[in-house]
Amino acid sequence: MTHDSDRLSLVADVGGTNTRVALAEGSRLLTDSLRRFRNADHPSLEDVLSVYVADESVDCAAAAVAVAGPVRDGEGQLTNLDWSIDTAMLARVTRAERLAVLNDLQAQAHALGHIAPDKLRTVIPAREGQSGSTRLVVGVGTGFNAAVALETPGGRIVPPAECGHVTMPVRTAEALGLAEFVDDRHGFASVEDVLSGRGLENIYAWKAGRSRSTAEILSAVDDDPDATRSVEWFVRLMGAVAGDLALIYLPFGGLFLIGGMSRAMTPYFDRFGFAESFCDKGRFSDFLGQFPVSVVEDDFAALSGLAAHLADSRT
Predict the structure, then answer these.
(1) Domains in the chain, please, with CATH?
(2) 203-229: pLDDT as tens digits
């Protein structure tokens, strides 16, 4: 397919397993251009993008990549895959003039305001008449991370972070037992070690004394008491950590949960007390009720965020 290249941007969302690539015109994704690549079928992101650019016959004006891992000075390294990404490679493959490499949560935060209302599921509603500009994205999936979106006169700023690798919170003797179990297994008990796909597996192994996959645990809720208790622990920890992040960033404009584990846990939020754990902060418990919480159900939000970021950087 041949495109009018002067008006288009190439955007790519690189996860540990798959890479999604699409074209965008301004902040609008061209959905018919969307393709998904299995990372295992390619030696590098450069190879993935070279295939895509050749197939689409496109020479873009701008290009941006979201990386599931830390990013610094235009260079990203995937946490769960031995791929490195930088702007020099992007320029070489796409011949684009404007380039960006972002952490995947940064891309998700740039998508806020571009997500259709029917792709947002309310967990904690906003209080009547309340508004705010600062918003926070919390990602719970293969890993864990968060990104704050700050609105400034010069445009939206989304600083990178690696929140998943801070120490797991411990308030009770039982939680200390979980932390010690994870520490023995991995040498350090991080938030990501209990709030991610493998995090649920760690909780289950601690509770049950045996191993099951994330999919098996989720399918066994109500049939396996250990699976039920593990999901309850996950939901309550998720609420507690999200509440901690809300106090750090004060997202009066809303906190947005993204990622496969966030969606998988959504049916259990009411049952296992996500909101109660979120607000359980002592004398600041009522204060936490000011932050609306939603689950993002848009599979292409990161790509939309990259497109929006490139469009905003042009103005």
Answers:
(1) 5-111+300-314 (3.30.420.40), 117-296 (3.40.367.20)
(2) 999 999 999 999 999 999 999 999 999
